[in-house]
Every structure is written in C-alpha cells, then in structure tokens.
C-alpha cells in the first residue's frame, strides 16, 4: 500500500472523528457558556449587546479563573505543591523544620538550664528571685521563642542566624530599658524617703543631705524588696512605658501576633531582674569561633569545638557567680 494512500486514509479518519464530537466538546470547558449563548441567540440586536451573551462572558471568566489561578499563598500550599519557591526559600523552610526537630529533642531528651529547670505553674512575680528569672528565661525559649523565630523566617524572609540574633537583640533591648528605668525609680524612691516634702519653697530653706550620704546598701536592699513585693502593680506600668518609649523602634513588631507575646515576657523578665539586690550577669554575645564549653552551653545543632553564634543567653547569678542557665549556641560545622 503506497504512502499517499495511507496519508489520505488517515486524514479521512481524522475528519470522521472530528464530526463525531458534540458541539460542546469542541470548545474548552470555560468557553461552554459562550457557545451555548451563541446557539440560543434569537437575533433582534447585536449578539455582543445581548444580556445572555454578557452573562455568558462573566460565567466563562469565572470558570477560567477557578481552573487556572490558585489564590493560596506559598505557606498555605502543601510542601509538594510549592513549585514557585526559590532555592533560598526552600533552604529557609528546611532550616525551620530542623529547628522544630531540635526543640523536640531538647525538651524530651536533654535537660535545659543549670539544673533542668521547669516551671509547672506561673511564677510568683512578687517573690521572684534570681533563680526565678532563669526559669522564666528558660520558659520563654521553650514556649514563645519558636513562634517569634518563625515570624522572622517566614514573614521577614531572613536566614536562621539572622532570626536568632534579632530575637536575642530584642531581649537585650528589654534589659537595657528596664535597667535604666529601675535606676531612675530607685533614685526617686530614695529621695522621697529622706525628703518627705516636694514643696520647693520649703526645700530652699532647709538643708538636704547629700545623696551619697543617705544611700547605703542596706537602704537599697530594703527598697528592692519593697519593689519586688509590689511587682504585680508595677509591671503593667513598666510594660506600657516600654511599648510607648520604644514604639518607633518596635513599630514593625508590636502588632505581630507571633512576636508580641515574646516581647512582653522579655520585658517582664528584664524588670524582675533589674530589681534584684545584685544584678545578674548575662552574656548576650559570643565572638564567632569561641570555644564550646558544654558546662555552660547547649548546642542546638551537632556539637563542635567552636561556636558560630549565640542563640539564647548564658546567665550567672552575679559576676563570677554560680551558673543559673546554660546558653543555647549554634556550633560551627566548618572544618
């Protein structure tokens, strides 16, 4: 059988096949409403001006959008459907998943803190001791650190190290603010204690002792105990002052649902720490390449001889004092 005959036979079969297709099947699914309106058109005006034809266009557009456009964000889609993720975004996503696994391993396996500290009930803020501050820092890391960490990973699109450093920076800013506020508060209390009047006219006519003469460790300790016992009433004011004073700096974070609870607990921890008789010694920074000391550090990744960066602070009761909380570090994996 010659080739031209075969070609003509194939063309004939194709034509018969096309004639057997129904009118609706000859159009894409989304164009079916338009085809139906054309078949049912009765005349009397231009078809493009007829109401049924315009309705058919709207319906065709709706069907096409449903079939071709996915309004889900990349975060809402299952991992296998995230075809548009860049290589960097995939790396960030994998790092976040690894962090969740590390947290689970740490909570179920290794203890955390100087003595496996755990808070089974809310801390009593009015009787807080340095050990309670360490416990609260531990709880912040176990409960609120991860959502805050994911805020920077997914919303701010930063790498794991940058996210951890930003959270540590926020904690340090809370401490700096509360220490300064506590010093001002203690100074005002001391002046009020020894000068029982604010009448400036009378103060000009009397001798007021020098601040150095009336300040002693005994007085300071008593006032700190008084402030600690009133923390339930003082802290809400401290919190408001912090967010009001730092509003411009924190405006990008204050309304973030995953970050606001973290900041509030950091402020609470910082204020409790600032009214202790002896200031806690807190390490907020480590030089890259520092030695890894398992006695005071816990590695969030595979332990290695050198530290890459600090994730959560190391806390001592005072300078050169006993350890209250081991720091969380990320070890360098480069050889």
General description of the model:
The chain is of the alpha+beta class and 335 residues long. It has 13 helices and seven strands. It has helices spanning 3-19, 32-39, 51-68, 87-108, 130-143, 145-155, 160-194, 200-203, 211-214, 217-229, 231-245, 247-250, 260-274; strands spanning 281-283, 290-291, 297-299, 306-312, 314-316, 323-325, 327-331. A four-stranded mixed sheet has the order 2-4-7-3, covered by helices on one side. The chain has a three-stranded antiparallel sheet with strand order 1-5-6, covered by helices on one side. A hairpin with a 6-residue loop joins strand 5 and strand 6 (323-325). Helix 6 crosses helix 7 (160-194), helix 7 (160-194) packs across helix 13 (260-274) and helix 11 packs across helix 13 (260-274). The longest helix has 35 residues, at 160-194. The relative contact order is 0.10. Residues 70-76 and 106-122 have low confidence and may be disordered.
Tell me how many strands there are: 7
Name the beta content range: 5-15%
Radius of gyration, CA atoms, in whole angstroms: 34 Å
Helix and strand element order = HHHHHHHHHHHHHEEEEEEE
Q: In terms of structural class, how would the helical and strand content be classed?
A: alpha+beta
Side by side, the strands of the main sheet go: 2-4-7-3
What is the end-to-end distance? 73 Å
Q: Main β-sheet, in a few words?
A: 4 strands, mixed
Q: So how many helices? A: 13
Helix content percent band: 40-55%
**Uncertain spans:** 70-76, 106-122
Average residue pLDDT? 76
Q: What sort of overall outline do the alpha carbons produce when their principal axes are compared?
A: elongated
């Amino acid at each position: 059988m010659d080739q031209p005959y075969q070609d003509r036979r194939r063309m004939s079969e194709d034509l018969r096949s096309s004639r057997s297709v129904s009118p609706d099947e000859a159009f894409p699914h989304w164009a079916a409403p338009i085809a139906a309106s054309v078949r049912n058109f009765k005349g009397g005006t231009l078809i493009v001006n007829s109401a049924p034809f315009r309705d058919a266009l709207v319906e065709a557009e709706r069907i096409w959008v449903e079939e071709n456009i996915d309004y889900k964000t990349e975060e809402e889609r299952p991992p296998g459907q995230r075809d548009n993720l860049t290589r960097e975004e995939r790396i960030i996503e994998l790092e976040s998943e690894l962090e969740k696994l590390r947290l689970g391993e740490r909570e179920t396996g290794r203890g955390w803190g100087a003595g496996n500290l755990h808070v089974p009930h809310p801390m009593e803020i009015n009787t807080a001791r340095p050990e309670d501050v360490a416990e609260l820092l531990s709880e912040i890391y176990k409960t609120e650190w991860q959502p805050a960490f994911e805020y920077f990973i997914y919303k701010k699109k930063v790498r794991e190290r940058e996210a951890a450093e930003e959270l540590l920076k926020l904690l340090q800013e809370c401490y700096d603010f509360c220490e300064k506020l506590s010093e001002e508060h203690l100074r005002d209390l001391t002046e009020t204690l020894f000068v029982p009047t604010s009448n400036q006219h009378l103060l000009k006519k009397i001798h007021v002792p020098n601040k150095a003469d009336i300040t002693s460790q005994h007085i300071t300790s008593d006032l700190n105990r008084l402030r600690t016992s009133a923390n339930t009433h003082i802290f809400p004011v401290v919190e408001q002052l912090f967010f009001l004073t730092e509003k411009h700096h924190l405006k990008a974070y204050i309304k973030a649902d995953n970050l606001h609870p973290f900041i509030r607990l950091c402020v609470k921890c910082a204020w409790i720490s600032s009214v202790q008789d002896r200031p806690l010694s807190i390490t907020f920074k480590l030089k890259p390449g520092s030695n890894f000391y398992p006695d005071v550090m816990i590695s969030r990744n595979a332990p290695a001889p050198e530290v890459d960066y600090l994730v959560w602070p190391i806390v001592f009761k005072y300078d050169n004092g006993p350890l209250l909380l081991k720091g969380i570090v990320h070890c360098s994996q480069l050889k």
